[in-house]
Amino acid sequence: MRVVFHEAFHGSDYSPDPYDNAAEPGRLVGIMETLRKEGRYPVETPSPASRADLLLGHSEEHVAAVEAQPRLYAMASLAAGGALLAADLAMRGEPAFACVRPPGHHASRASAWGHCTFSNVALALLKLRASGAIRSAFVVDFDQHTGDGTMDALRGWPEAQVLNPYGDNAADYLRNLEERLAQAPEADILAVSAGFDAYIHDLGRKLGTADYFAIGRLLQGYAIRLRHQRRFAVLEGGYFIPDLGRNVLAFCRGFE
After folding, report:
1. Rounded to an integer, what is the distance from CA 185 to the centroid of its chain?
2. Domains in the chain, please, with CATH?
3. Which of 64, 141, 233, 249 lies in disulfide reach of 192, CB 3.0 to 4.6 Å?
4. pLDDT band at 75 (very low <50, low <70, confident <90, very high)
5. Strands annotated E in the chain
6. What is the pLDDT of residues 124-168, one digit of tens each?
7. 112 three-state secondary structure
8. CA-to-CA distance for 73 and 128, rounded, in angstroms?
């Protein structure tokens, strides 16, 4: 398994929103320190997504509006590029986790909200389809919030489905994920919007560190059933900084 990361993601001055939790200084430091200390995940450095890549999932007007904010555009196009690289690694048989910001699962074709800018996971899948590498995809979004932007960016592609598990507590949540994965369709690749804000000390207040390992292992099992085992994940939410690194590591250990 490989981690996709660029040192530029440590920057926190890209967002025009002073209440943007995803842009909080130091948010990715603990994640990368923990993953590097693990010593088993080589780090790959992404390049920014091209404008043509962004237009695969977004309107000209949306891309132009972000371009008018140079710092935001630079960071958001790099985040999209991180997702593209993670997807490419998956297609080469290497599971990947992209540690990027800003997140993307609330970025629709023509707008974005919830600290998101470009629809990172959707763009990665749309580029694979445009190249002829895949015809179908299955997305699992375990963020506390529904990936409405991902669903919008993928609309019109019936062979790309998005699953947002639910449950009032950890046991129900894991049970729902397991049951729905058992019914999940065959797909050419598994993409994961990895949000960690359902953590017991974060917004969702229901999942523990061990549950993130269980989520990763369930998703690994689904990928194994697909035989090709192509899978990648991209960071979305997660704002309880003291435990964010160990939660991401738990997921990666299960997903690898």
Report:
1. 20
2. 2-255 (3.40.800.20)
3. 233
4. very high
5. 2-4, 43-44, 96-98, 137-141, 160-163, 190-194, 231-235
6. 999 999 999 999 999 999 999 999 999 999 999 999 999 999 999
7. strand
8. 22
